[in-house]
């Protein structure tokens, strides 16, 4: 990293992904060395995903979808304002080149946190972009199973109760930070993105 000495301190600039992190190792020695070249070649692999079974745990409701979607776009109010855990299940086939060193599952949009299993093997928990999961050791020839347990926040459900869209006598919070708005319009864009959606790829 390039750094400059200012006011008795070393200052540098680091760019990170959203919610990203990194390590900076400092030395008192003046290390006059060029950083080692680091380049990773990636290629999208040919894969075919079957339709998804999406089970909403709190509702005990299962949907079968060929395309993933943002829960906010559902016409079913119980899904649109759902807060909690949902289990995604599908199967897929993949042709990986023989020279591939590692194979990653790439999720486009995760809202908010997801636990990923391939063929029943725990692979990773992801909550920040880029959503890349190393699935090399879990893959097998032919048919593979993919299970993703995802959870969002309570915000959307809280808003639906707050606006009177959903009646829930058992719902209670001492953290209400807004005025009661029953009868007023709650727009989709006022809700938080929820669920797993976008492209799913193997690279």
Topology:
Blueprint: E1 3-6, E2 9-12, E3 46-49, E4 52-56, E5 61-65, H1 77-80, E6 85-95, E7 104-111, E8 113-118, E9 121-126, E10 131-134, E11 143-151, H2 155-162, E12 195-202
Antiparallel strand pairs: 1-2, 3-6, 4-5, 4-6, 6-11, 7-10, 7-12, 8-9, 8-11
* Regions with little confidence, pLDDT below 50 for 5+ residues: none
Helix content: under 10%
User: What structural class is derived from the secondary structure elements?
Assistant: mainly beta
Counting DSSP E segments of at least 2 residues, the number of strands comes to 12
- Our Rg estimate from Cα atoms comes to 22 Å
Largest sheet: 7 strands, antiparallel
Distance between the termini: 29 Å
Proportion in β-strands: 35-45%
Query: What coarse outline follows from CA principal-axis ratios?
Result: flat
Total of helices: 2
SSE string, helices as H and strands as E: EEEEEHEEEEEEHE
Q: What average pLDDT do the residues reach?
A: 88
3D architecture notes:
The chain is mainly beta and about 200 residues long. It has two helices and twelve strands. Strands 3, 4, 5, 6, 8, 9 and 11 form a seven-stranded antiparallel β-sheet that branches. The protein has a three-stranded antiparallel β-sheet with strand order 10-7-12, with no helix packed on it. A two-stranded antiparallel ribbon has the order 1-2. Strand 8 and strand 9 (about 120-125) form a beta hairpin. The mean pLDDT is about 90.
């Amino acid at each position: 990293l390039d750094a400059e000495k200012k006011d008795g301190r070393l200052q540098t600039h680091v760019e990170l992904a959203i919610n990203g992190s990194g390590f900076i190792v400092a030395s008192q020695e003046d290390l006059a060395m060029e950083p080692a070249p680091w380049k990773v070649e990636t290629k999208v692999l040919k894969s075919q995903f079957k339709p998804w079974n999406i089970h909403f745990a709190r509702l005990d409701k299962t949907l079968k979808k060929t395309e993933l979607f943002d829960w906010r776009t559902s016409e079913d109010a119980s899904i649109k304002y759902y807060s909690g855990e949902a289990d995604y299940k599908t199967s897929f086939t993949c042709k990986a080149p023989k020279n591939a060193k590692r194979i990653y599952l790439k999720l486009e949009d995760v809202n908010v946190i997801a636990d990923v299993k391939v063929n029943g093997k725990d692979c990773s928990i992801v909550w920040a972009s880029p959503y890349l999961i190393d699935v090399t050791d879990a893959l097998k020839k032919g048919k593979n199973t993919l299970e993703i347990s995802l959870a969002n926040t309570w915000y959307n459900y809280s808003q639906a109760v707050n606006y009177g869209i959903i009646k829930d006598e058992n719902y209670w919070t001492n953290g209400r930070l807004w005025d009661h708005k029953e009868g007023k319009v709650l727009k989709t864009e006022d809700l938080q993105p929820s669920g797993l959606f976008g492209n799913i790829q193997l690279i």
